[in-house]
Amino acid sequence: MRKQKRVIPGFGLSMGVTISILSIMVLIPLASLAVYTARLSPGEIFETLSRGRVLSSFFVSFLTALVASLFNAVMGVILAWVLVRYDFPGKQLMDGLIELPFALPTAVAGISLTCLTTDQGWIGSIFARWGIHIAYTRIGITVALIFVGIPFVVRSVQPVLEKIDGTYEEAARVMGAKPAVIFREVIFPEIKPALFAGFGLALGRCLGEYGSVVFIAGNKPYYTEITPLIIMSELQEYDYESATAIALVMLFASFAILLVNNIIQDRNSRIANGTR
To answer: What is the pTM of this model?
Structure first.
């Protein structure tokens, strides 16, 4: 039997380089978290993680990240739909602006959003008339996370919408289906895997966001303190063990989100290919 040639020449060397880069850039830095945390006893780890400010920061980070990601899941589909299904002046500009949060330094985004949403800002002053304060509240944190997370959903859903065969929608219209029914029964099942992927990526990104949030949050203990800020405070006090213990929780949470996301994507791919 003829031996099948490998697609990539020098597979052994390529795999070795890949594993080396992966270890240096990802595995070793993450392993250092476990090493530093191991210096603490289980009781000390529990005491660190059960502190009031730490638990409050976990709640704020997870709550705002979840709300922002759910909002992005809805608005991301709408933005992707507009960019794919309609032609209008400035479409290319709008399409390019979607990726601006990727390129813009997070500190710049945080300062800009804070200036806009304070009670004296252009946007914040409008809401302040009705007693709604955005900057230095959890609403402001959510706004910042929406800004950094929206591209993940749009860029995940957009390519799928572009590839959907319009004949299915046309057939549904001929059979008398209403637009809402067409979207629910024809379009949504096609974009659902991509939507889950974008939601998972946005949620993971929002959990670890620091630069764009730290300015607009106001950093009020037990109210707007986020977990990355607590970690930064521990590092400034040279308490590396406590910082890594808290960071390890966020690492596990982010990894769990991405793992569940990949499992869902793999399952949907098997169903689509008929292999289950």
So the answer is: 0.86
Task: Tokens for 155, please give them.
Answer: 């860029």
Distance between CA atoms of 244 and 64, rounded to whole angstroms?
Answer: 22
Is residue 157 within 8 A of residue 194, CB to CB? The reply is: yes
Q: Cβ neighbours of residue 228 under 8 Å, at least 6 residues apart? A: 61, 208, 209, 210, 213, 214, 250
| C-beta of residue 179 within 8 angstroms of C-beta of residue 248 | no
What are the DSSP E strand ranges found in 124-260?
Answer: none
Q: Please, are residues 220 and 140 in contact by the beta-carbon 8 Å criterion?
A: no
User: pLDDT digits over 4-20, tens only?
Assistant: 555 656 667 777 788 88
pLDDT at 3 over 70: no
Closest CA to 154 of 92, 82, 233, 238: 82
Residue 158: closest CA among 270, 79, 80, 215: 80
pLDDT tens for each residue of 141-191: 999 999 999 999 999 999 999 888 778 788 888 888 888 888 888 889 889
